[in-house]
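Anyone else keep sequences and structure tokens together like this?

Example one:
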Amino acid sequence: MTQHPFDASTQQSATLYVGVSTKMYMGYADSLRWLRAVRHEVDTRPALAAGRVVPFVIPSFPVVPAAADIIAGSPLLLGAQNAGWADGPWTGEVAPSMLAELGVSLVELGHAERRRYFHEDDAVVALKVTAALAAGIAPLLCVGEIDRSEPAEAAAAVYEQIAAAVTQEWAAAASMIIAYEPVWAIGAAEPAQASYISAVVGALRELLGEHGLAQLPIIYGGSAKPGLLPQLEHVSGLFLGRFAHDAKNFGAVLDEALAATAL
């Protein structure tokens, strides 16, 4: 069986993950400059070598090969923003097997923008999850309720999205990271309230615990920024967006994660 980089059966529950996607906000040259700045933030924090905090970056597709070179030898892991569901005659898609060749460790799947604007339903997301796992790449599965609701209701909706992505084959979920991103908080001026995030993730862990997955890495995204992580409970880290396009903000969140894991 392929060993995936994020296996809930082997990862310690205290491990925190801090990652960032550039989406399509940067051009090629700007992306390389940003990656070098992120590499500097990581290199100046030698405590990351202990592995208690796992940093990752997800640039746009054309940048992936150069990104692999820039972050080589550092604790940074490389991700991709999407993937196809198979090799073969799929014009314009990128196969997970090729991403694996390029050193990609995780792939973002099921993001709200893909679901809404590219009409990727649960069935498509499940195909992509299966293909990523077969290629040895961990899916970073994006899930979240569309409208704000009570925490228990939101957790139930997220649970169903995870179940659909693994087609009820819950063993597959052990090799994933869950990115909890309430759709209503994506692109907002502020993230969801810390108490709400903590309650939703806590309830979700109870549901996942029925399948032995209570310790599954669940990170929060949705206008996440410095200052949020220390307020959260039950959460395994942050998935940052535009706030981390300033590499110093990425470094600030790394410091918060390192402080949390040192307790």
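And example two:
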Amino acid sequence: MTRPAQPRPTLAAVAERAGVSKATASKVLNGRPGVSETTRQQVRQAISELEYVPTTGPRAPIPGTIHVVFDTLNHMYPMHVLDGVISGGSELGVDIVTSTVASGGVIPDRSLGVDRIGEIAARGPAGLIVVTTQLTGEEIALCEEVGLPLVVIDPVNPLDDRVTSIGSTNWAGGVQATRHLLELGHRRIAFAGGPKESVPARERLHGYREALETAGVTPDPNLAHLGQFTIEKGIEIAEKLFDLDEPPTAVFAASDVIAMGVIKVAKARGLRVPEELSVVGFDDTYGATWTEPALTTVRQPLGQMGRVAARTVLDLARGKVPDSHHVQLGTALVVRDSTAPPNR
């Protein structure tokens, strides 16, 4: 009598024997990072004891969605990034699911949260892309634990090599914007910046200071103000700048929406742009060509950042180790009509 064939050991059985999740067992099997050496030994021992042999047929397809979380969708920057992610997802054959940390256009001052990450992971996406939202060490560790590939676009807080990030050359962009104003002849150049806790905002501020110091201009602390990336903050900063005894002749704004707030106040006070005030933005969002006059700005490759993030998160899902954990794409100055030599 022929004995019935014994059921073939599964990866789930290996994970149960090793006392880890199936995702962690898969990481070990595929040589992916993010697993301690002790855990690797436990999984390898379980594989040996169960005589587990990976399926030789085609691998299971990567799940068909990427989850993208924004801080808010209430301004133009995320629309460019989202367009790039969707384009990249279409090219790669995956769907994009989006959500936000906060609603109603409020910029959140909190991180994503471990409960939220757990909910996202339970839906089984190929990976998670987080845009301009801070992440805690606990949240990063949870993504590793559940085997959820993570990519961050324009990280708010500094990240270590456990996380792959996509951004732009913010420091160089700050230099480009400020140098343009210096070359036009401006010396009273103000900086209207983003949040002090934002890494991109700080890099743009450092680029601004570097360009001034290289030109022999001592940065004036009264001309540099930080705040949220909103038009309201641009208005608030501009009011302070224009109330100075010696106001600036030019403003470098750390985002296009901040620049729009500055221009709004300038017009309300009867200042002609660019004849009496030059303004440079950062991002080159859709609205940069809608302002009056059209905005000179530093172009971030926002769409390309989204496409690179989509491709990278799928590479991570397939077990590929990235060539670099922190990718920065180049910026470029786009000169339009909002800058001119100072009115002497």
